[in-house]
Amino acid sequence: MATRTLKVTISGTGFAGDYTTRVYGMIPHKNGVEIELAGVCAGHLENAQKFAEKHGFTRAFAAHQDMVSTVRSDIDNIACANFAHGPYVVEAAAAGVKVIVLEKPPVIWPGYAAGREASAAVRKQESMAYLAEVLDAVRQHGAKLLYAEDFIYVDGVKGLVEVMGQARAVGKGKILYQRGACAHQGSHAPAYDTPSLSGGGALFNKACHPLGPILYLKQVEGILQNGQPIRPLKVSAVALQVLKHQPEGAGEHFRVMQNVDDFGHVTVVFEDQTVAEVLGYDLSISGIRNELSVIGDFGQYDMRVNPNNGNELFLPVAAAAGELVLREKLPTAQGTSFPAPNQFHAHGYVGEMNDAVDCALDEERYPQSGALMAWDTMAVLMAAYESSAKDAVFVDVSEYVRGRDFLACEMPAPQDFGRVFQSK
Predict the structure, then answer these.
(1) Are 321 and 288 in contact (CB under 8 A)?
(2) Dist CA 213 CA 157 (whole Å)
(3) Which runs of E-coded beta strand occur in 258-379?
């Protein structure tokens, strides 16, 4: 059998770069396909060189543009600090990369780079204009953008898409209310507490996770119904700095943010007058929390991604766990915990990268989470900060819903999402 090699490049050597690299060794087996870790880049070449040696990359680079131009990769993974997301997408598209995997959030306000200040409303307008330029570059060069919201790719979301498809046969399938949360005790990424590097805090970088599947499921609902996605209409939100204003001892088990929000709550009203609530916060003392609850006219589906009680472990002494990470951001292994074996599978990372590989192998296939997802996510997040600045008044986002047209290939294709349930 002839062997086909896909060249993969990765920007970033931190947490996201590490799990992205590891996941490429976990995707479902595909006969005759080999994945070459062809290049990794970092702001400091020595970091890229160490990372390359550790994970078996062919080459290390100091500059992303040099990497994608030299390697001519099939898949480029942008897993670095948020401020570089937009420029790196444009560079990858111009270099002819087939599939660009873009970590969330898609871009940050371009005014940060110029050292400017502006109202939240202006930041929203300029951020969306900039994202439009980035997405235009992807289209112009014929690339495929995979907006890497791993929450969309968890098996529970796939299963719910299957249920929604079956419910259509009995006149059901409408989602009425969704509630999602993502939290832990504060990102360890050095850039996180610097708005010009991260773009924002818990609302921007944590609420974006459950927001992804919430938007996706409404898009799927509309596509299953009449071929047109249901999209957000207006947003109300609060973004707060909680720990910064508490006594010093209150922050012992957290990373206390000085410049970005550590709590965000977003209410999204959709075009069909259904609603969703999204929480993102750096106030979880017990490690990562990823949850999604969906109520429809056909039933209720609760996803406890992490933690869940499928596994329970008691350790009287934490040292017994050695170097094992039982659950992401779990501060101690001592006592009773709910470990999460194969977290990369449970969190959707493997399904996400498998989608990227499928799209690289098949010219007709496009990502489930694509340009439409990146666009609507950014519109909601930036409108949320505007709402918070205006004491949580609703901010209309219909100008962005109506202001940009999306191709069918840039939208979800639920029939191609895969199956997780058995059939009778």
Answers:
(1) no
(2) 7
(3) 263-270, 275-281, 289-296, 299-306, 313-315, 335-337
Query: How does DSSP classify residue 29?
Result: P
Q: In this structure, are residues 43 and 61 in contact, taking their beta carbons and an 8 Å threshold?
A: no
- Residue 18 one-letter amino acid: D
Joined tokens for residue 397: 């986002």
Closest CA to 385 of 252, 261, 223, 256: 261
Q: What is the pLDDT of residues 350-359, one digit of tens each?
A: 999 999 999 9
pLDDT of residue 424: 83
49's tokens:
């060189």
* Residue 62 amino acid letter: A
pLDDT at 383: 98
Is 0.85 topped by the overall pTM? yes
Phi and psi at residue 62, to the nearest 5°: -95, -20
Cβ atoms < 10 Å from Cβ of 335:
11
Q: Which two tokens stand for residue 366?
A: 């496009």
Which residues lie below 8 Å from residue 124, measured CB to CB, with a gap of 6+?
379, 382, 383, 385, 386
> In sequence order, what are the beta bridge partners of 300?
295
The rounded Cα 117 to chain-centroid distance in angstroms is 27
Computed over its alpha carbons, how large is the radius of gyration of the chain? Answer: 21
Q: What is the DSSP letter of 234?
A: E
Taking each helix axis from N to C terminus, what angle separates 155-167 and 208-226, rounded to the nearest 10 degrees?
20
DSSP conformation class of 72? -
C-alpha to C-alpha distances, 30 to 3, 34, 35, nearest whole angstrom: 10, 8, 10
Element (H, E) at 423: none
pLDDT tens for each residue of 308-320: 999 999 999 999 9
- CA-CA distance, 189 to 159, in Å (whole number)? 33
**Using the 8-state DSSP alphabet, how is residue 83 labeled?**
G
282's enclosing H/E stretch is: none
